[in-house]
Amino acid sequence: MFVATVHEEIPLLGGDVTDGVMRVGDTVRRPTRPSTPSVHALLRHLEAQGFDGAPRVVGLDEQGREVLTYLEGESGLRPLPAYAVTDEALAALAGLLRRFHDAAASFLPPRQAVWENGSNDDRAPELVGHCDVNLDNVIFRDGLPYAFIDFDLARPTTRLFDVVTTLRHWAPLADPVDLDPLQRDLPVGPRLRLFCDAYGLAPRDRRRLLDLARLRFSRSYIAMRTRAASGGGWARMWAEGAGTRIRRAGAWLDIHQDELHAHLV
Ligand SMILES: Nc1ncnc2c1ncn2[C@@H]1O[C@H](COP(=O)(O)OP(=O)(O)O)[C@@H](O)[C@H]1O
Ligand SMILES: [Mg+2]
C-alpha cells in the first residue's frame, strides 16, 4: 500500500543508528533495508496474534520509506527518569517480552526471509526475536513499558538470547562507569531474578543465562566492529566507544558472575 505524505516531517532523534527517522502525523517513516519485508511479515503476524506492543505496518510511502504507526509515549530519555528503573517497570518489561515471544513463536518466516546479521546463541532458534531491546527501543506510558520499536535487528534466535540482550541494558549487565546515574546502584542480582520470574523463564535457561551473556559480549564486540566498518550510524557508535563499553561489561561480569548466578538458581 502506498501512503501519501500530507503532514509536516518531524525528525525523531532518540535512536543511535538510523538516519532520517521521521514522524509524519500518526506515522513514522524510516529508510528500508534488505530485511524490511521480513520484519514487516513479523509485525503483521504480531498484529494478527493480537499482540499490541509493537508498531503496525502501514506500508511504503512515495519515497520508498517504510511507514509504521507512531506509538504515543516516552522513549529514549536521557537522563533516565526514575520510573524507568523501578521493579514495576522491570517486571512489566519482562511480561512484555514474554507476550512478544509467545506471539512470535507461531510466526513462520517467509521462504526468502532476509534478516540482519548479528551475534547469536549456539542453540537452535526458537523464534524470531527482537534482538535489540535497549533503552531507546522501549516505549513507556504511565510509567510502564508497553511497546517495543525498532525491529531492524530481529532475527531467528532463542528466547534466552533475547532475555540476555534485554537484561544487558535493563538489569543492567554493565560496568557502572558506563551507566546512567540512576542505574549505578541498582541491585542487579535481585533484578535478574525479578525479570526471570516475571518472564517465567525456564530453570535450564536461568542456569545458562550468565554464560550466554559472556558469550554475547564477545560475539557482539565482533559483530559491532563488523557493522562499524560499513560506516553510518554504527561507525559513529563505534567511534564513540561502543566496543570499549562491551569489553568493560565483559570484565565486570567476570568479576560478578558467581555472585549474580546465586540469584538465578
Ligand atoms: N513507531 C514509533 N513510535 C514512536 N516513536 C518512535 C517510533 N519509531 C521510532 N520512534 C522514535 O524515534 C527514535 C529512533 O527510532 P529507531 O527506530 O529506534 O531508530 P534507530 O535505528 O536509530 O535506533 C526512537 O528511539 C523513538 O524515540
Ligand atoms: Mg532504536
UniProtKB/TrEMBL annotation:
Coiled coil: none annotated. Residues 30-110, 124-194 form the Aminoglycoside phosphotransferase domain. InterPro entries: Aminoglycoside_PTrfase (IPR002575), Kinase-like_dom_sf (IPR011009). The keyword Kinase applies. Keywords: Kinase, Transferase. GO terms for molecular function: kinase activity. It comes from the Bacteria. SUPFAM superfamilies: Protein kinase-like (PK-like) (SSF56112). The keyword Cell membrane does not apply. This is Ser/Thr protein kinase RdoA (MazF antagonist).
